[in-house]
Amino acid sequence: MRNHNNKRRDIARSVLPSKARRAAKVDRRNIHHAERSATRAMLHRAITDGDDGFDDAVDYPYRFRVAEFVEYRRSKDKVEPLIRWARRTIVLDRRLRDATPAQQLDHFRRTLPDNLIGRHAIFHLEWVIHQ
Fold it and tell me: What total of structural domains would you count in the chain?
Protein backbone atom coordinates (compact mmCIF):
# COMPACT_ATOMS: atom_id res chain seq x y z
CA MET A 1 0.00 0.00 0.00
CA ARG A 2 1.37 3.37 -0.97
CA ASN A 3 1.64 6.31 1.40
CA HIS A 4 0.21 9.33 -0.38
CA ASN A 5 -2.80 11.62 -0.42
CA ASN A 6 -5.05 8.91 -1.94
CA LYS A 7 -4.32 6.35 0.77
CA ARG A 8 -7.94 6.36 2.03
CA ARG A 9 -9.24 5.67 -1.46
CA ASP A 10 -6.74 2.84 -1.92
CA ILE A 11 -7.67 1.36 1.46
CA ALA A 12 -11.36 1.41 0.62
CA ARG A 13 -10.80 -0.06 -2.86
CA SER A 14 -8.69 -2.88 -1.45
CA VAL A 15 -11.80 -4.37 0.19
CA LEU A 16 -13.72 -5.11 -2.99
CA PRO A 17 -11.63 -7.80 -4.69
CA SER A 18 -12.65 -11.09 -3.22
CA LYS A 19 -10.54 -14.22 -3.11
CA ALA A 20 -13.50 -16.38 -4.15
CA ARG A 21 -15.16 -14.58 -7.06
CA ARG A 22 -15.36 -17.49 -9.49
CA ALA A 23 -16.38 -19.99 -6.84
CA ALA A 24 -19.05 -17.56 -5.64
CA LYS A 25 -20.55 -17.35 -9.13
CA VAL A 26 -20.78 -21.13 -9.33
CA ASP A 27 -22.26 -21.39 -5.83
CA ARG A 28 -24.86 -18.70 -6.53
CA ARG A 29 -25.80 -20.37 -9.82
CA ASN A 30 -26.24 -23.74 -8.09
CA ILE A 31 -28.41 -22.27 -5.32
CA HIS A 32 -30.73 -20.53 -7.78
CA HIS A 33 -30.86 -23.55 -10.09
CA ALA A 34 -31.90 -25.81 -7.20
CA GLU A 35 -34.59 -23.33 -6.17
CA ARG A 36 -36.00 -23.04 -9.70
CA SER A 37 -36.09 -26.83 -9.98
CA ALA A 38 -37.91 -27.16 -6.67
CA THR A 39 -40.40 -24.45 -7.65
CA ARG A 40 -41.11 -26.14 -10.99
CA ALA A 41 -41.67 -29.45 -9.20
CA MET A 42 -44.02 -27.78 -6.68
CA LEU A 43 -46.02 -26.14 -9.47
CA HIS A 44 -46.20 -29.42 -11.37
CA ARG A 45 -47.51 -31.21 -8.25
CA ALA A 46 -50.05 -28.43 -7.70
CA ILE A 47 -51.31 -28.69 -11.27
CA THR A 48 -51.47 -32.50 -11.37
CA ASP A 49 -52.98 -32.89 -7.90
CA GLY A 50 -55.43 -30.04 -8.37
CA ASP A 51 -54.12 -28.29 -5.26
CA ASP A 52 -54.60 -24.54 -5.57
CA GLY A 53 -53.03 -23.65 -2.21
CA PHE A 54 -49.41 -22.70 -2.34
CA ASP A 55 -48.43 -23.07 1.30
CA ASP A 56 -44.90 -24.00 0.28
CA ALA A 57 -44.46 -20.89 -1.86
CA VAL A 58 -42.10 -19.25 0.63
CA ASP A 59 -39.11 -21.51 0.84
CA TYR A 60 -37.26 -20.51 3.98
CA PRO A 61 -34.42 -22.99 3.41
CA TYR A 62 -33.79 -21.24 0.08
CA ARG A 63 -33.60 -17.86 1.80
CA PHE A 64 -31.26 -19.37 4.37
CA ARG A 65 -29.03 -20.79 1.62
CA VAL A 66 -28.87 -17.41 -0.09
CA ALA A 67 -28.07 -15.63 3.20
CA GLU A 68 -25.42 -18.23 3.97
CA PHE A 69 -23.94 -17.75 0.49
CA VAL A 70 -23.81 -13.97 0.97
CA GLU A 71 -22.14 -14.39 4.36
CA TYR A 72 -19.56 -16.76 2.87
CA ARG A 73 -18.89 -14.39 -0.01
CA ARG A 74 -18.40 -11.44 2.32
CA SER A 75 -16.05 -13.45 4.50
CA LYS A 76 -13.73 -13.84 1.52
CA ASP A 77 -13.29 -10.09 1.02
CA LYS A 78 -9.75 -8.88 1.58
CA VAL A 79 -10.30 -6.71 4.65
CA GLU A 80 -7.05 -7.00 6.57
CA PRO A 81 -5.42 -3.84 5.13
CA LEU A 82 -8.59 -1.87 5.90
CA ILE A 83 -8.82 -3.25 9.44
CA ARG A 84 -5.15 -2.61 10.19
CA TRP A 85 -5.45 0.94 8.87
CA ALA A 86 -8.61 1.63 10.91
CA ARG A 87 -7.17 0.20 14.13
CA ARG A 88 -3.93 2.11 13.65
CA THR A 89 -5.87 5.33 12.99
CA ILE A 90 -7.86 4.84 16.19
CA VAL A 91 -4.74 4.11 18.26
CA LEU A 92 -2.86 7.16 16.97
CA ASP A 93 -5.73 9.64 17.29
CA ARG A 94 -6.52 10.41 20.93
CA ARG A 95 -9.99 11.77 20.14
CA LEU A 96 -10.90 8.59 18.26
CA ARG A 97 -9.46 6.40 20.99
CA ASP A 98 -11.71 8.07 23.58
CA ALA A 99 -14.76 8.18 21.28
CA THR A 100 -17.67 5.78 21.28
CA PRO A 101 -17.90 3.14 18.52
CA ALA A 102 -20.65 5.17 16.82
CA GLN A 103 -18.44 8.27 16.77
CA GLN A 104 -15.53 6.22 15.40
CA LEU A 105 -17.74 4.91 12.60
CA ASP A 106 -18.91 8.45 11.83
CA HIS A 107 -15.28 9.49 11.51
CA PHE A 108 -14.60 6.73 9.00
CA ARG A 109 -17.81 7.52 7.10
CA ARG A 110 -16.53 11.08 6.68
CA THR A 111 -13.04 9.85 5.80
CA LEU A 112 -13.86 7.18 3.24
CA PRO A 113 -15.47 8.03 -0.10
CA ASP A 114 -19.27 8.18 -0.17
CA ASN A 115 -19.81 5.62 -2.90
CA LEU A 116 -20.35 1.87 -3.18
CA ILE A 117 -16.74 1.11 -2.31
CA GLY A 118 -16.70 3.37 0.75
CA ARG A 119 -20.01 2.03 2.06
CA HIS A 120 -18.76 -1.52 1.55
CA ALA A 121 -15.65 -0.69 3.58
CA ILE A 122 -17.80 0.84 6.35
CA PHE A 123 -19.86 -2.37 6.44
CA HIS A 124 -16.70 -4.30 7.29
CA LEU A 125 -15.51 -1.68 9.79
CA GLU A 126 -18.79 -1.91 11.72
CA TRP A 127 -17.92 -5.48 12.71
CA VAL A 128 -14.43 -4.55 13.81
CA ILE A 129 -15.30 -1.40 15.73
CA HIS A 130 -18.20 -2.96 17.63
CA GLN A 131 -16.06 -5.86 18.93
Answer: 1
Contact (CB, 8 A) for 117 and 12: yes
- The identity of residue 103, as a single letter, is Q
Judge whether 4 lies within some domain.
no
Domain extent at residue 49: 9-129
**Spatial distance between the Cα atoms of 121 and 109, rounded to a whole number of angstroms:** 9
pTM: 0.55
Can you say how many angstroms the Cα of residue 103 is from the centroid of all Cα atoms in its chain?
22
CA dihedral 17, 68, 71, 35 (to 10 degrees): 40
pLDDT in tens, 15-59: 665 666 677 778 778 888 888 888 778 777 777 877 655 555 555
How many whole angstroms separate alpha carbon 97 and alpha carbon 99? 6
Q: How far apart are CA 44 and CA 28, in angstroms?
A: 24
Query: Distance between CA atoms of 75 and 4, rounded to whole angstroms?
Result: 28
